[in-house]
Amino acid sequence: MYRYDEFDTAFVRDRVARFRDQVARRIAGHLTEDEFKPLRLQNGLYLQLHAYMLRVAVPYGTLNSRQMRQLAMIAERWDRGYGHFTTRQNIQFNWTRLADVGDMLEALADVGMHAIQTSGNCIRNVTADHFAGAADDEIEDPRPTAELLRQWSTDHPEFAFLPRKFKIAVTGSPNDRAVTKAHDIGLRMVRDAAGAPGYEVIVGGGLGRTPMIGKVLRAFLPKDDLLAYVEAIMRGYNLLGRRDNKYKARIKILVHEMSAEAFADVVEREFDHIKRTASSPVSPDVRARIEAYFAAPAFAATNAADTRFDDRRARDPAFRAWTVQNLTPHRVPGYAIATISLKAIGAAPGDASADQMRAIADLAERFGHDEIRISHEQNVVLPHVRKADLPEIFDALCNAELATANIGLISDIIACPGMDYCALATARSIPIAHDIARHFAASDYARTIGEMKIKISGCINACGHHHVAHIGILGLDRRGVENYQITLGGDHTETLALGDRAGPGFGADEVVPALQRLIDAYLTERTDAHETFLMAYRRLGAEPFKTALYGNATPPELAAA
Amino acid sequence: MAKAREGVAQIVSANDLMTGAVVYATAHGWSHAISDAAVAHDAATADALLWRATADEATVVGPYLLEVTVSAEPSRAITPAHVRERLRLTGPSFDAAWQHPVTKAAA
C-alpha cells in the first residue's frame, strides 16, 4: 500500500498546524463561525446531534495494522471507545470535542492518516473495490489510479470551492464492487481491442434526493490521459454547475439538464485544450513509483499437505457456515479473501469497538500481509489470508465477537447513523436495522432466504444507499412521527438499478412485519433456491411484492402513489 | 429548524463550542439541563432568545429554536415536542454493550 514520503508527512503535519491555528482563532473570536465552518468542514469536522463528528479518510478503504491500532487508540483516548465505518470506506468518530481535534489529527498524522476533504465542496475520498489486488475477477488493481487521483485532488486550489461535494470511485473488475454508476465520476478499468489499458468514464451518477444512474462519457480513455480528462470534467463542472440551489448543485443535475452529449462536448474541448497546452502532470516514473507501492505481497506457496482448512470445515459447522458466507475466491491458490462482519445481531451496523479494531489489526499483521480494507457495505476485509490459517483466524474473530457468518445475507444491513446521531436525519435507522437483524437472526432461515441486500437511510440524503438496495428503507418524518418507505429491486453492481417505491410508508413497528410479507412472497414465488430476491423481482415485477405489502385493495393513498 | 411562533412554547438549543455537547439557553447563559431552559411563549421573546444565542459565538455553535411542552405547576417539566430533540436529550436510543453510557454530566 502507499507509504507517505517526506513531502506527504510534512504536508499533513503542516495541515494539522494550520487547523490548530484556525481552531485557536475561532475560540479567541478572531474567526466567526461562518468563516470557520468551511475550514472545519474541509478538515472533516462536522457538528452532529450530540457532539462534533470527525470523519477520517481511509483512502480507497485501505489501511494497515499500525493505522488500525492508532484508530483504536484515538477512539479510546478522545472518543467513546468505538468508531463507525461508512459507506464511503471512511471512519467516523461520533463524540469529538473541538479542543481535542488538533491532537486527534496529530495522532492520525503520526501514522500517515488525515481528515482532509472528507467534507465540504471539494473532491472527497476516492473509493475503490475493497477486494482490489486480491479478487480473481480483476483486470487491474484500481488502487494506483485511486492514489493518483488522491494526490492530485488533495488541496487542489482550482477545485477547492466546487458547487458541491464531488465523489469518485474506481473499479478494476467488471464485477463492480465500487458502485461506480452512482458516483459523480465512476471509472471502470477496461482494455481496448488491442489489450491496451484504459478507463470507461462514467459521469453524473448519484443517490440522494434525485438519484440518477451515471452516463458513459467516454467508452475508452487511454490510461495516460486520466488526469487531463478528469481535470476537464472538473473544469466543466466548476464553471457550469449550479450554485444557486444547493439541491441542484451536483454534477448529476448538470449532466441531466444539459444532456450527457452536450456535457461530453464541453469536456472533450477542454481535454483537447489541456493536452495541447499543458505538460502532462503525470510522468511515467511518477506512475511507476505509485504502482510500486501496490505490488503484490510475497504470497506463500500452497502446501497441499496442510489440511487444516478442510479438516476444520468437515468437523465444525459454525466454521463451515462462516467460510460459505464470508469468504471470496482469491486470485492466488491457497489464499482467500475474508470479510469480517461488523453486523453482529444487535450491533450498530459498521461500528467497531477499540478492542475489535485491535483484534483485526493483530490478525492482519499476523496472517494477512498487514493489509486491511473497509468496504462500502460497512464491513472489514482481510484481502490476503491463507486458507490454512483460517481456522485460527476464525477462533480469534469468535473471541472478539466478529465472527458473524452473514455476509450478503439479510442481516448484513447497511445503515446510516440516522437520527440517533445525525443532525440531518428525519428518522432513526439503527433501531430498524436491529429489529430486522433480530427477527431474521436464525442462520438457517437467513441462508434459505439467500442473497438479500437491505439498506437503510435515515433521510433523503441516502447515505445508507437505500436506492440501490434489493430492499431499501427510507426513514422520513410524517407529521412528527417516524415513517419508513420501502423501495424494491435496487442494485449496486455493474447492472445498477434504482429501487422502485413500493407505496405508502410504514410505522417503525410495522417495518419488520412488512419485510416478513415480502420475504414470504419471495420464497413462495421463486423458481428455486438459486433465484435470488433481485432475480425474482426482475422476473416478476413489482406487483406480487406490492400485493404482499399492501394486500389487494387499492385504498385512495395507494391509487395516488 | 423552527421559526419563532405565537402561542407555542419554544426554547433555544445549541452545541457547546468546545465540547460539542447539547446545551439549552437559560435566562442568563447556558445549561446542559433542559429544566433550566428559558421558555418563550410568544414570537418576540423567542426571537430575542435566538438572537442572543446567535450572538454568543464564543460559547455555542448552531443555535436554533425548538418546540416544547411545559407541564403544569409545580413540576413545570419541559419536554421537547419532536423525537429528534428528545434524542438530543437522552443520547442514541439503542444500547451497544461496549459503548460507554451517555450521561449529560460527562459532556
Can you describe this structure?
The complex is a heterodimer of chains A (561) and B (107). By secondary structure, chain A is α+β, with helices and mostly antiparallel strands. Chain A contains 19 helices and 21 strands. Chain A has helices spanning 6-28, 33-42, 65-78, 98-110, 143-153, 226-240, 251-258, 260-277, 284-293, 308-315, 317-326, 354-367, 390-399, 430-439, 443-449, 511-525, 533-540, 543-550, 556-560; strands spanning 45-47, 52-56, 62-63, 82-85, 91-96, 127-128, 168-171, 185-191, 197-203, 215-222, 327-329, 335-340, 351-353, 372-374, 380-386, 414-415, 454-457, 471-478, 481-488, 500-501, 506-507. In chain A, a hairpin with a 4-residue loop joins strand 1 (45-47) and strand 2. The longest helix of chain A is centred in the N-terminal third of the chain and has 23 residues, at 6-28. Chain A starts with 5 loop residues before the first helix and ends with a helix. Chain B has 107 residues and is of the alpha+beta class. In chain B, strand 4 (60-70) and strand 5 form a beta hairpin. Chain B is globular, with a radius of gyration of 14 Å. Mean pLDDT of chain B is 87; it is low at 97-107. The A-B interface holds A 26-27, 29, 32-33, 47-52, 80-82, 95-99, 347-348, 351, 353, 355, 419-421, 425, 428, 430-431, 434, 480-482 and B 15, 17-22, 57-58, 61-62, 81-84, 87-88, 91-94, 96, 98-100, 102, 107.
